[in-house]
Amino acid sequence: MPYEQVTVRTHDGACPTHVLTPGGTGPWPAAIMYMDAGGIRPAMVEMAQRLADIGHVVLLPDLFYRYGPYEPFVPAEVFKGDFRAILGPLMATTGNDKAAQDTGALIAYLDTRSDVVGRHVGAVGFCMGGGMALAAAAAFPDRFAAVASFHGGNLATDAPTSPHRGAPHIKAEVYVAAAENDRSYPPEMAAKLEEALTGAGVTFRTETYRAEHGWMMPDFPVYDREAAERGWSELRAMYQRTLR
């Protein structure tokens, strides 16, 4: 299906962004996909296209743009060694607050497209992108109608930019899919996030999948096809309920 690469001007520079659409002329509701720490690579683009094929204009921004150009990573190779040494410098250039700031520019870009219908946008994030998606929904509550986090980590910490702190601002429906035995999202952290969402009156649902952190990513060694298909089904159902 068709896709294009555009440059979205943000407060901090130029963010390369894939734009993916279904076949046909539209218009369609929009969604923003927040990448994992593996960065932009063929598997992420394929996932964004899968979401587009459901019936959405999908933006896949390269949130490592502040770092500068980099070669696409092969996760199976990266995770053989000290992946933190490899990915850490790139991850240090972004975060929940910066991703939320970037989201303002991404929404402004969506507003210029004639193939986008409606003001409500969906967000979905994987791994580090899960927290970014929640932060975006809190930063732009009148624009996001649905937000999903798949095996997101550090969703309720002591950091001032922790996603759970934005719960009082979220108007979107929220779905949080956690991994089993995930050190980046232990049960006590999950309880803290759920408490924040409940206290804020957010419509949400959380689940723990019997799969490892990263199960949604088709190029990860821990990819779990059955669990991933279930995740896609949940995402599709939520978007169909909320994005019209």
Characteristic terms for this protein:
8 strands, 244 residues, globular, 7 helices, 24% strand, alpha/beta, Rossmann fold, 8-stranded mixed β-sheet
Please tell me about this protein's structure.
The chain has 244 residues and is α/β, with parallel strands linked by helices. The protein has a single domain (3-242), classed as Rossmann fold (3-Layer(aba) Sandwich), CATH 3.40.50. The chain contains seven helices and eight strands. It has helices spanning 42-55, 75-78, 83-91, 96-110, 128-139, 187-199, 225-242, and strands spanning 3-10, 13-20, 28-34, 57-61, 116-126, 144-150, 173-179, 204-209. The protein has an eight-stranded mixed sheet with strand order 1-2-4-3-5-6-7-8, with helices on both faces. Helix 1 links the parallel strand 3 and strand 4 (57-61). Helix 4 packs across helix 5 (128-139). The longest helix has 18 residues, at 225-242. It is globular and about 45 Å long. The two termini are 22 Å apart. The mean pLDDT is 96.
